[in-house]
Amino acid sequence: MSDDAPAHPKSRGAARRAQRRGPTMEDVAEIAGVSRGTVSRVLNGATHVSSASLAAVREAMRQTGYVVNESARSLVTRRSGAVAFVLSEPPDRLFEDPVLGGLMRTCTALLGAQGRGLMLMLAGNPDERERVLHFARGGHVDGVLLVSMHDGDPLAAALHGTGVPVVICGRAPATGPLMPYVAADDRGGARLMTQYLLDRGARRLATVAGPADTPGGVERLAGFRDVLGGAVPDGAIVRAEAYGIEAGRAAMDQLLHGFPDLDAVFVASDLLAVGALQALHAAGRRVPGDVLVGGFDDSAIASATMPPLTTIRQPLSQVAAELVEVLLELIAGRHPSSRVLPTSLVRRDSA
């Protein structure tokens, strides 16, 4: 039978019989009037199939209820159809930080549209990192999205050694193998916010920086320094221990103690800014009347603070889309370059 011959679907009775006993690829081929090889090529996404045969196979699959056996396919293709979303943080960070939750939701939807599943894996301690490596070495995932990396974390280099495609969210570590990444322009966004606060009249400008072992902690502080140069007063920089509300409150308390006459503060994430606003309120400082406050991310929480937060918008949906695109290119054997996406200022009431 010719693979490209027009389809001649058989009776609906054959389709019903196939449904009762469980449809096979042979049933689909018989009802579509094509060879088993043509059905296989359609299921594997081949392009050299006639439009008539393609339509007939799809109709036969619909009539019989045939679905691809992914376990059997993976034995042939050596692909699992799964991608790991690896978070190098404690599990509660995922539920506290709307940035991470938003990234994961968008990546899940985009991969689902490609017929792939997303698997969340934690890698905040040595045992969890070893579990991730075990899955990668065992072929359980086709690729890895590595999120919230910390300097000195050995996981990126270890994953690279497994041969599994890896894309990093945020700038890649300065040391170790070269790996593709997708990042927002943290440094440029920090420059934008710092200059905006100065333009709004700030004269005693401080910052709550992110942890020093994270790309955002390094890049956003660098952008702050780019604008102020050598004019950063002693005590005007405090690093938060983590990206969280409590850490932001503690860092703001420290700033108020060491730099009490500050009139503006650039906070390195919206979540940190929530804590900073709480500390300012507890200290009797009015925002923006006494202190201008600017954040970073434009996550969902930014418009819900009191007052609503002026912040830097990361294009999170685009970051997720580019992460998925770069990873799929790697899985396909191509060599995509890293990507840095522009940020923008969002003005609200806090500054």
TrEMBL record:
SMART domains: HTH_LACI (SM00354)
UniProt keyword annotation of Nucleotide-binding present: no
Sorted UniProt keywords: DNA-binding, Transcription, Transcription regulation
GO MF term (any one): DNA-binding transcription factor activity
SUPFAM superfamilies: lambda repressor-like DNA-binding domains, Periplasmic binding protein-like I
PROSITE patterns reported for this sequence: HTH_CROC1, HTH_LACI_1, HTH_LACI_2
Region annotation (Disordered) ranges: 1-25
Transmembrane segments: none
UniProt keyword annotation of Amino-acid biosynthesis present: no
Superkingdom of origin: Bacteria
Residue ranges constituting the HTH lacI-type domain according to the UniProt record: 23-77
Domain HTH cro/C1-type: residue ranges: 24-67
InterPro entries in UniProt: Cro/C1-type_HTH, HTH_LacI, LacI/GalR-like_sensor, Lambda_DNA-bd_dom_sf, Peripla_BP_I
Name of the protein: Transcriptional regulator
Organism: Paractinoplanes toevensis
Lineage: Bacteria, Bacillati, Actinomycetota, Actinomycetes, Micromonosporales
